[in-house]
Structure formats: C-alpha cells, structure tokens
Amino acid sequence: MPIYDYNCKACGHAFETLVRSDTVPACPQCASTELEKCVSPLAPAGKIEAIRMAHRRVAAAQGHFDHYSPSDKAKLLQGKKNI
Length: 83
Prior knowledge:
Elements: E1 3-8, E2 14-18, E3 35-38, H1 45-61, H2 70-78
Antiparallel strand pairs: 1-2, 1-3
C-alpha cells in the first residue's frame, strides 16, 4: 500500500494516508472524499541515511542480523554503502 499526501477540498486539511487500490480515502477531519492528491516532498539524502541506519540498529537489537558473520554485521551497522 503506497502512502499518498492529500489536501481536502472541503476543509483544507493536509494529510497523508495509506491507500489500497480499491478504496477511496476520506479526510480524517471532515470525512469528505473530495481530495486533491499532492506531490510528496522527498526527504533529504542525509535524513534517508539516518532513517535507514536507525532501522538497521533496531533490527540488530531484535536479533535479525544474528545469522550474519560478525564482519558482515559490522558493515551493515557502519552506515557506509559498501555492501
């Protein structure tokens, strides 16, 4: 399910939501379905890397990387794109 940004034409509320292909989203404030789909801004590259590393640290803490060798695990957690 993709995340889309919308602007409600009825009340002006801007929001983002997950949308299935067979559903029509509604405004969380006024429940109107008269929405304008907006272009989502891209996250700056530094933020993307920080988010990716935060997710990797959480995954490592939960044991998802336990099947990796110690050297491969260290590479994953360094934050460099050497894999």
